[in-house]
Amino acid sequence: MDYLFDACALIAFLNDEAGADTVAGLLTQKGDTTDHVFITCVQALEVYYDRIYVKGREYADTFLENLYSSTVVVLHDISRDVIREAGRFKTSYSMSLADAIVCATAKSLGATLVTKDDELSAPEQAGEFSMLWLK
Predict the structure, then answer these.
(1) Alpha-carbon distance 39 to 25, whole Å?
(2) Cα–Cα dist 87/3, whole Å
(3) Is 41 in contact with 76 (CB distance < 8 Å)?
(4) pLDDT in tens, 50-94
């Protein structure tokens, strides 16, 4: 199974909040080699600037280096189909652009979106994609 992290999933892990153990398990999974954990560059940016605010630039830079040397696949390209879906998510569900991108990417990949962001519940309830809720 493939998983896509929303920014709040990694922030929960870094802050040792509820759901941190679930994220840690996904980061260290040793199961089927076809399983992947993804994050989009937009969500990586959200975590990066959060770390600047919370812990400072040096910590944020270390986080970024660790992310890129981990097993998490950082997605840099946003396909034309994801752009179209993100536009639909943004207008249909009145969500932020970053949320629309992560939702469209989850749908495109067929990945389970890992989040604790209640603002993403509407597309999940509409059957757009599956979610793993961190609570």
Answers:
(1) 16
(2) 22
(3) yes
(4) 999 999 999 999 999 999 999 999 999 999 999 999 999 999 999
Cα–Cα dist 9/6, whole Å: 5
Instruction: Identify the CATH number of the domain in which residue 40 sits.
Output: 3.40.50.1010
Residue 62: name the closest of 20, 54, 8 by CA. 54
Residue 23 and residue 9 in contact, taking contact as beta carbons nearer than 8 Å: yes
Q: Which residues contact 2 (CB under 8 A, 6 or more apart)?
A: 35, 36, 37, 38, 109, 110, 111, 112
User: From CA 94, how far away is CA 45, in angstroms rounded?
Assistant: 21
Tokens, residue 53: 């605010």
* Counted domains in the chain: 1
Range of the domain at 89: 3-133
pTM of the predicted model as reported, rounded to 2 decimal places: 0.94
